[in-house]
Design goal:
Blueprint: H1 2-5, H2 21-47, H3 50-65, H4 73-90, H5 93-119, H6 121-141, E1 154-160, H7 167-182, E2 187-196, E3 202-213, H8 225-239, E4 244-248, E5 262-268, H9 274-289, E6 294-299, E7 305-312, H10 314-320, H11 324-336, E8 338-345, E9 348-354, E10 371-373, E11 379-381, E12 386-393, E13 398-400, E14 403-412, H12 418-432, E15 437-442, H13 443-451, H14 454-475, H15 482-485, H16 488-506, H17 512-515, H18 522-551, H19 556-566, H20 568-581, H21 583-586, H22 593-632, H23 646-653
Antiparallel strand pairs: 1-3, 1-4, 2-3, 5-14, 5-15, 6-14, 7-12, 8-9, 10-11, 13-14
Length: about 650
């Protein structure tokens, strides 16, 4: 109506605006829209108490973090309304004034607490030394690991039947195992492989399975891969008595091994009998399974495969002008197959293999029909040069580092990490293995054993040295950077406290298979390195602003107090924003859940505890080390213009 009835406004120079009715209506509509929104916002905001607004804000944030907006339309509508009300409430002057008043009250109390720690220097130094000692304790006692096992949606199975089992019997057992796998509601599909084992060897007594689980959206929380593996293994132990059936997840780093289990290569350095070596390995695995850290320790090695030992009569061969290699080559061609030549057809090259017809090699009587050419060019029966004896032995003999070896797959028990399992392996080996018998780790466990310990400690030392050298260059002092470095252990200790606390919760029987366990693995080490930079940044802010105020002429004590007060708001803002943003990682489920939870828990614990301790201790450390620095090198007053800190100087004067 204003745009229609009122004439165009006059400008400041007295001339009339040259605007059309449409343009005036657009301006009037925009002004009316803004006025209406402001009035309704203020009206609704007056009805919302700041505490209610803050509650709605927290509910909206937690709803976004935990995905509550997508549960169902009704819940979504409720959270949308709460989010709108929270946004309206935060935009009102009432909320802003209350927030600022509350923050000013907190800031005053904070400065008093900072002054208390500055005046109690021995208490502050004690609070610095104690966390360092506790941190060293937790670093030595926290379970270690390399990469946590994750639910990739794929499982593997290995079936080992008694030696000498026929192919038909093996496929019958494999079909029963296949039915057992198919009955699990979490399984989507499976593939059966007959004659090959992922952790054993090749032959009619071996079999394998590749199991594909349903998508995470179609599985419940208790149907993760660990639960499915445990369920299938227990059911197979009860139902399949004729074979050894193992289930495991593929390794997190492809190429290291066939499973996530610890690969142990037992070694016989005495060069003795295989049967004695096999007994030693069985005693060792039995002792391992008696340990609480070990769930299972199995080997697919078996020295009882039925075999024929062929003894060649060298004297008879020499008399007939035949070499033993000729006899072995002839038998290889008849029974095992022999490469002869190549031929080209359809643009491709094909290999020619020679082998006897199956009916001509099905039993020992067929040896009488095989002949070998002697030096006179005549064909002589091969049976007159050999003798055959029934024996028992392994289907394959492995070597590791030139020693006879047997592979043992060790699965850590639920609630224990691979680092704890490796410690149990070493302890049991020291107690049970005889002289001349030892073991070597393989796969990812070998990398974990080689990379843990000194290498990780060296990385952290280099990080500290790097930060120290940069700060020394920035402050032109070798003393003042210690105020930053000595505050970092607070955050590192917080990471270890949170990880051990969550791990303790995960060890509860009802939550063990769902939450799993946490360890000092590569994800936690990444979080620790990241925290060193972020915590150093918080301490640098306090020290930098305190140093600026010291250069303006304030005393060291009040420079520290006012510098810390000036940076309290941004430190709280950035640190709490990071903590809230990492909550989805801390409570992650699904793909990559174990790694995400470890990374999120370590980061949140370190940032939260480190931030709380730093804002009180760093000012006290600044006072101590700045005092020492000025004893070595007196302060040079370069900046005498205090206009940038008038308000703080007035507060200091009061």
């Amino acid at each position: 109506m204003c745009a229609v009835l009122l004439k165009p406004h006059k400008k400041e120079d007295g001339t009339t605006e040259d605007s059309t009715l449409k343009e005036r209506m657009k301006v009037a509509y925009t002004a009316a829209h803004t006025t209406m929104i402001n009035r309704y916002t203020e009206a609704i905001g007056k009805m919302l108490h700041p505490g209610i607004t803050l509650t709605f804000t927290l509910i909206a944030i937690l709803g976004m973090i935990f995905g509550l907006f997508s549960i169902n339309p009704i819940v979504t509508a409720i959270f949308v309304v709460l989010s709108i009300l929270a946004l309206i409430g935060m935009s009102t002057k009432k909320f802003k004034n209350r927030f600022n008043d509350t923050y000013e009250s907190i800031l005053k109390r904070y400065k008093k607490r900072v002054l208390f720690f500055i005046q109690k220097k021995w208490l502050s130094m004690g609070l610095v030394v104690a966390p360092i000692a506790i941190l060293v304790f937790f670093m030595n006692t926290t379970p270690t690991g390399m990469v946590p096992n994750e639910d990739t949606g794929t499982l593997m199975g290995a079936v080992t039947l008694p030696p000498g089992t026929s192919q038909d019997r093996s496929e019958e057992i494999l079909a029963r195992v296949d039915s057992l796998i198919a009955s699990d509601p979490a399984v989507l599909s499976r593939t059966m492989i007959s004659g090959f084992s992922f952790i054993g060897g090749q032959g009619p007594s071996y079999g394998s399975f590749i199991i594909k689980l349903k998508d995470w959206d179609e599985r419940s929380m208790i149907q993760n891969s660990d639960v499915v593996v445990g369920s299938l293994y227990m059911r197979a132990q009860k139902i399949i008595k004729e074979a050894q059936v193992l289930f495991f997840a593929p390794p997190m780093i492809p190429g290291y091994s066939a499973s996530t289990d610890i690969e142990v290569n037992m070694q016989d350095k005495t060069g003795g009998d295989l049967n004695k070596f096999f007994d030693v390995v069985n005693d060792y695995t039995a002792a391992l399974e008696a340990r609480p850290e070990i769930n299972s320790a199995k080997t697919s090695f078996n020295p009882n495969f039925p075999q024929y030992m062929i003894d060649i009569d060298a004297a008879a061969c020499k008399k007939a002008g035949i070499s033993p290699s000729d006899i072995l080559t002839t038998m290889q061609g008849y029974y095992g197959g022999l490469y002869a030549s190549n031929f080209n057809r359809f643009g491709k090259m094909y290999r020619v293999m020679i082998q006897s017809d199956p009916l001509s090699r099905k039993n020992l009587e067929s040896l009488k029909n095989i002949k070998v050419r002697n030096s006179a060019g005549e064909m002589a029966p091969i049976a007159q040069f050999i003798s055959v004896e029934k024996v028992y032995g392994p289907d394959i003999i492995s070597r590791f580092n030139l020693y006879t070896s047997m592979k043992v797959m060790v699965a850590p028990a639920s609630g224990y990490t691979s680092g704890q399992a490796l410690t149990a392996l070493a302890e049991v080996a020291q107690e049970n293995l005889p002289t001349g018998y030892t073991y070597e780790l393989g796969g990812m466990a070998r990398e974990e054993a080689q990379s843990s310990g000194s290498a990780t400690g060296l990385i952290f030392v280099l990080c500290f040295v790097f930060v120290y050298l940069l700060l020394s260059a920035q402050y032109e002092s070798y003393i003042l950077p210690l105020a930053v470095l000595l505050s970092i252990p607070f955050g590192l200790l917080g990471s270890f406290l949170f990880v051990n606390g969550v791990s303790a919760i995960g060890n509860i029987s009802a939550l063990k298979m769902i939450l799993g366990t946490m360890s000092n693995n590569i994800y936690m080490q990444i979080a620790l390195i990241m925290l060193m930079g972020l915590l150093a940044k918080n301490a640098i802010l306090i020290v930098e602003f305190a140093l600026d105020r010291r250069k303006m002429g304030m005393s060291i004590t009040w420079a520290a107090v006012l510098g810390a007060g000036a940076r309290l708001r941004p430190i709280l803002m950035t640190s709490l924003a990071m903590v809230v943003g990492l909550l989805p990682l801390m409570f992650a489920f699904g793909v990559g859940a174990h790694g995400n939870r470890t990374l999120g828990t370590a980061s949140i614990g370190g940032m939260l505890i480190g931030m709380i301790c730093q804002i009180f201790i760093v000012p006290a450390l600044f006072v101590i080390f700045q005092y020492l620095q000025e004893k070595v090198k007196p302060m040079e007053w370069e900046d005498i213009d205090n206009t940038d800190a008038v308000t703080e100087i007035e507060q200091y004067a009061k």
